[in-house]
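Sample intake sheet
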Amino acid sequence: MRFISLVLVFLLSVTLLTAGEVPVDTLWNSANNSYSVGNYQEAAQLYEQILNENGESAEIYFNLGNACFKQNLLGAAHLNYERARRLDPTNPDILHNLDFVKAMQIDKIDEVQDIFITTWLDNVMNIFTGKAWSTVFFTLITLSLLLLSFFIFSQTSRIRKLSFSGFCLFILLSVTSFYLGYRQRNQTLNRSEAIIYSQEVVVKSTPNNSGSDLFIIHEGLKVRIIDKQENYYRIILDDGKSQGWIPRESAEII
């Protein structure tokens, strides 16, 4: 009897805790309906609620970015498009909107061009997500072991040669896929890029208000964080030279 009472109390508690929750489909439809009738602020709030309750999603970040863009919130739009690209790096709609919002920025920075091999690796890396790269790696390892077994147990010289060549090729490909997956995961976990949220930020020479003014940057610009101290970020721009300190509240990490 005591056990049954405890079970009933537990079920009642769960019911009370979940009674106030709104199903994600309902929130999603409400957000989309708000967006379609031009209520972009409400749509953005609902998309944020979905993210808070159900975790990250490229589609939700993309829609949230659109809702922010419609409100002329350039920093928030850029931030959410970047977060959407991090989860779905080859989506053409995300990439198109990112290019569009970057073109509207006040600050025009001459980016340092990466060497060819770095650019090529990044392009190949972004073909798949991190989870997909894991699948590719284990598939290639499995094929490598299968070819190795043919090499070991086959009695035919031609099959042994072909299987050994295939084994070497698939091992090379598996190592490459592992590296690309690791590189992508490392970039995802070690988030060092941020979007300027304030309309205008004065970059200082020191992490306090007493430092001299170096230059001014504006809402929507993407910067890289190279150091942190108390309430300040030390940032560097894409030109590879311009750097200084900004208040933490003026930027949001991607």
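Comment: The chain has a mean pLDDT of 87. Residues 200 and 218 are 4 Å apart (CA to CA).
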